[in-house]
Amino acid sequence: MKTVDISVIVPAYNEVGNVQALADEVTAVMKKIKKEYEILFVDDGSTDGTAEKLQEMAQSDSAVRAIRFARNHGQSAALAAGFRYARGSVFVLMDADLQNDPADIPHMLAQLDTYDAVCGWRRTRQDDFVKRISSKIANAVRNWATNEQIHDTGCALKLFKRECVHNIKLYHGLHRFIPTLIKIEGYNVVEVKVNHRPRTNGISKYNIGNRLFCSLYDLVAVRWMMKRQIRFAEDVLE
Question: Is the CB of residue 146 less than 8 Å from the CB of residue 222?
Answer without folding.
Answer: yes
